[in-house]
Amino acid sequence: MRVTIFVVLMLCIGLNLTGCASSSSVLSLPSYTPVGLNLTQKEININSITDTRANKSIIATITDSKGSVEHSVIMAEDLQQTFAKALQMELKSSNAILGGQNPSIVDIEIIEFSANLSGYSGQNLQGKSKLKIKIKNGDTIITKTISQPQSKYTPLPKVSAFQPFITDMLNDMVRATTRAILAAN
User: Residue of 6, 101, 128, 174 with fewest CB within 10 Å of its CB?
Assistant: First the structure.
C-alpha cells in the first residue's frame, strides 16, 4: 500500500514538473536613461497617462508552433508608471518645461504593448506598441498615434531574451512620444 501511494505521489510530482502546460515569469527593467533629444523648448503638462490594454499584467508570451501560450511574462513594475517616469525624464532632458504659465495639456493612452517569442527561425521575437496622444494648445487639439512594431531573432526561446527587447520597445516608445509632444504646434 505504501509503495502504491509513493509511486502515485512521484508520478504526480513528475507530471507537475514536466507536464506543466503554462508558466510565468516576472521581468524587471533597468531604469530609463534619457538621451536628450535637443528639441524646441515647450511648456508641457502631462494631464494623464492611461493604460487601456485588455490584459495589463502580461507583456510577453512564449508560444508553441500552434500558437498556444507556453509561458507568460509580467512586469515587476506597472507599465503605466514605468512609462510615465521615463517620459518625464526624457521630456526634461529634451528641453521641455513641465508645467509653466501656458502649457500644452497632454493626455496619453497606452493601447498596446506586447511581445511574443515563437519558434527558432526568422524574426522569432516580435513586439507591438501603440499609443494615442492628445495635445491641447489653447483651443487647438492635436491627436497623434504612435505605433511601433519591432522584431528580431533570438537563438533560443527563453524568457531572458525579453529583457533587452522590452527595454528597447519602451525606450523607443518614450522617445517617439517625446518627439511627438515637442513637435506639436
Answer: 101
